[in-house]
Design brief:
Elements (H helix, E strand, L loop, with lengths): L4 E2 L4 E3 L20 H10 L5 H4 L7 H12 L3 E3 L5 E10 L2 E13 L5 E2 L6 H14 L1 E2 L3 E5 L4 H10 L6 E4 L5 E7 L2 H12 L3 E5 L1 H14 L8 E8 L5 E3 L2 E5 L4 H9 L2 E6 L1 H10 L4 E6 L2 E7 L17 H9 L9 E4 L2 H7 L4 E5 L5 H9 L10 E3 L9 E2 L4
Helix pairs in contact: 4-7
Length: 399
């Protein structure tokens, strides 16, 4: 068996105690805002968000609550070590997709696993306190194998005909299913296939870094602490990356605002539909603007703007270009909000807030930069949908 991936005994909600898993699962901690947190916790006193996020800096409460759920058998440990096939069914723009991968333990080998985004200090401080308290991986990181695997597809086709042992819908209605894989040959083959490919972290950079740090400091206290809970998918049609648009507070009036942009761009007013089409079809840097309820498509006049970026690797990365050179045109730029839809951008862009609409980065480009060791700015990629927290967790076992 490959040493990169291995099976584990998952801790999961007891379906005898929890009849509707949709009420107890939640998104990863970093995409839950205060409004959504209140909604999640109103769904059930057993929603995992009660453990996933600490209230008012109280990190003891999540640990005590997890112990209480285990004692009451609200959550239980699986009977044996397994891999878990995890499928998500979802819709985007009236098109149906599905994505599947393997929930397993993944060895935190920095020579085999490549990050693609920079991390921030504040989230790592929070997650360090949480992992120290609960002694568990509460959410899997999301990792992509560079190669497509016919074997993983075969496993999926075989298991998807069976009844999943866990099933839940997320807050957007996306269906999540989990099957146990306990056949030793299948486990060995899956670990070998996925372990022989380059792996890139799609989501969970902060969790990976703090888990690695925790292992370095506590590796002698727990078994297998050099492994982290991970959802590993290979390249497939269901790997969808959504764009991440920016809504920025800018006090310039309309005339001055566009004068600054027209130095480098051809600016054309367009409909919302045509803007979406133009962004998706363009192969060079471009962007959209949403201001005062109107949409504009901006096309570069020449490479003068891009030439301001000394590192040529970043000249093809729209988020870097935007933050490094476009946003620098506005000395009075203030707070930034992020969203993944043009419609939401339109709602947020009002008064002195301007929406900047960017293209989604391609999966191939993510791999290219990651292999070169080049990290993208925060909020560059958004793999949709998010892997749910609460389908399965991994508790650390004493050595």
């Amino acid at each position: 068996m490959s040493s990169i991936l291995k099976p584990f005994r998952a801790t999961h909600f007891n379906t005898k105690a929890i009849k509707d898993l949709s009420k107890v699962v939640c998104p990863p901690y970093d995409v839950i805002d205060q409004k959504q947190l209140l909604k999640l916790r109103k769904k059930s006193v057993n929603n995992l968000s009660h453990i996933l996020l600490a209230d008012n800096g109280d990190y003891k409460k999540p640990k005590n609550l997890l112990n209480e759920w285990l004692q009451k058998q609200i959550m239980i440990d699986d009977d044996k070590e397994s891999l878990y096939l995890y499928e998500q069914e979802f819709n985007i723009e009236e098109k149906s997709y599905n994505r599947y991968g393997i929930l397993s333990l993944l060895k935190m080998d920095k020579n085999e696993i490549f990050p693609h985004e920079r991390t921030l200090t504040a989230p790592k401080v929070d997650r360090k306190k949480m992992i120290k308290s609960v002694e568990a991986n509460l959410s899997p990181i999301f990792v992509i194998a560079a190669k497509s695997s016919g074997y993983i597809s075969e496993i999926y086709k075989r298991y998807c005909r069976k009844t999943p042992f866990l099933k839940a819908a997320d807050h957007e209605g996306n269906l999540n299913k989990l099957w146990k894989i306990q056949d030793k040959k299948e486990i060995n083959d899956i670990c070998k296939v996925l372990g022989n490919s380059k792996l890139v972290i799609a989501d969970g950079h902060h969790r990976f870094e703090i888990s690695y740090d925790y292992f370095k400091k506590n590796g002698d206290k727990f078994k297998g602490l050099d492994y982290i809970l991970a959802y590993v998918a290979d390249c497939q049609k269901g790997l969808v990356i959504l764009p991440t648009h920016r809504v920025v507070t800018i006090s310039d009036n309309k005339k001055i605002f566009f004068e600054k942009l027209e130095k480098y761009f051809i600016v054309k007013e367009v409909t919302q539909l045509n803007l979406d089409k133009s962004l998706k079809s363009s192969v060079v840097f471009c962007l959209g603007i949403c201001r005062e309820g109107k949409f504009y498509f901006l096309k570069l006049k020449d490479n003068a703007l891009l030439n301001k970026i000394t590192d040529k690797s970043y000249r093809k990365l729209d988020t870097y270009i935007f933050h490094k050179v476009v946003l620098s045109l506005f000395n009075n730029a203030g707070d930034i909000e992020y969203t993944h839809s043009i419609e939401e951008t339109k709602k947020l862009a009002h008064k002195n807030k301007t929406g900047f609409l960017l293209k989604a980065v391609s999966l191939g480009f993510v791999f290219d930069l990651a292999e070169k060791g080049i990290k993208m700015p925060q909020k560059t990629t958004y793999f949709y949908p998010k892997i749910l927290s609460g389908m399965a967790i991994r508790r650390f076992m004493k050595s």
